[in-house]
Backbone:
């Protein structure tokens, strides 16, 4: 077994993710990344709890069994010429070819070492080679799995975030601070009167749990945030319908949008306008021109518009009901629109990430 968690993003495997992959991602030559399967989701205590990382089956400890099962009849064409180990097609593509004969005859084009890097065959040496080391160097023994209490109960949460990609062997690069000088980024006060600037607080990120279920798209998504403590929203991460450049706008207003004419553009304050390369599979950051500050007990309405389409999650919950929350704020169900400030359509959950300071 091995344990892994993403404490910065608050992500973890959860109920229904059993058997899912845990990868390490390491840089390789030519701008490539090498993904190595190191674990499969097994169990956990709760979901995304800081004190309890997810528990995974350690693939390296079972590689001989996996090789025997696959190469023993399930998929012999996927195995080495001697039929003993699974071929690593991804690594072969990085090292100069997929033909076994080419791999025997040619050197690794990244490190200039003569060897075939195969699944299950000294994984540490493969990684060492791709990072510029030598296969002849002495490698360290595997890190022992952390001790997990046998009394911990299985995962029971019903809202699985995406399983994280983490690296047990290479420490992650810390995310840059999102705090900015207040002289360059004015702040909009919101909700509950007054407010002042949001600079100088602790930078945080919150990813909505509906991100995994974002399958609908609209030109705009309107939603509401209610603050439990004073906060300043500095940017949003969103996903687009297609992998295309799109005109994107983000609007904001004090309080709940049911208190004013939400389809009247003049009622809103524009805090972002620009062309953005959106992606249906990855979150893309939209840095607001002005921070949106919400006082404790106050609320703000946000409206995100994309000309090419924005992904969201359709819901049957009531409008303004809470569907996501953390210790600082609640996120409430809103509406999608078929056009900018026109044609309200479906009840919608904003699916993305809220970057803020508190």
Residues:
């Amino acid at each position: 077994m091995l344990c892994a968690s993403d404490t910065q993003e608050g992500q973890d495997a959860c109920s229904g993710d059993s058997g899912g992959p845990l990868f390490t991602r390491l840089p390789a030559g030519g701008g490539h990344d090498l993904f190595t399967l190191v674990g499969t989701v097994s169990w956990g205590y709760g979901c995304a709890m800081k004190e309890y990382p997810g528990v995974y089956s350690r693939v390296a400890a079972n590689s001989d069994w996996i090789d025997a099962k696959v190469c023993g009849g399930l998929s012999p064409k996927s195995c080495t010429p001697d039929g003993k180990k699974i071929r690593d097609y991804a690594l072969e593509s990085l090292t100069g070819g997929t033909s076994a004969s080419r791999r025997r005859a040619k050197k690794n084009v990244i490190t200039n070492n003569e060897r075939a890097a195969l699944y299950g065959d000294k994984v540490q040496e493969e990684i060492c080679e791709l990072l510029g080391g030598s296969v002849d160097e002495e490698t360290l023994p595997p890190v022992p799995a952390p001790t997990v209490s046998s009394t911990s109960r299985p995962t029971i949460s019903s809202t699985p975030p995406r399983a994280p990609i983490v690296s047990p062997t290479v420490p992650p690069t810390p995310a840059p601070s999102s705090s900015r000088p207040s002289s360059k980024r004015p702040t909009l006060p919101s909700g509950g009167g007054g407010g002042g600037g949001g600079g100088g607080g602790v930078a945080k990120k919150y990813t909505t749990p509906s991100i995994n279920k974002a399958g609908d798209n609209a030109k705009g998504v309107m939603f509401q945030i209610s603050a439990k403590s004073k906060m300043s929203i500095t940017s949003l991460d969103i996903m687009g319908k297609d992998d295309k450049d799109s005109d994107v706008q983000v609007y904001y207003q004090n309080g709940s949008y049911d208190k004013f004419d939400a389809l009247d553009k003049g009622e809103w304050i524009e805090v972002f306008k620009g062309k953005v390369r959106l992606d249906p599979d990855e979150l893309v950051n939209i840095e607001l021109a002005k921070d949106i500050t919400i006082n404790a007990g106050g609320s703000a309405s946000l409206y995100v518009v994309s000309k090419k389409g924005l992904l969201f999650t359709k819901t049957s919950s009531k409008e303004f009901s809470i569907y996501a929350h953390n210790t600082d704020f609640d996120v409430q169900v809103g509406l999608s629109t078929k056009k900018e400030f026109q044609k309200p359509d479906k009840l919608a959950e904003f699916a993305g990430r809220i970057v803020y300071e508190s």
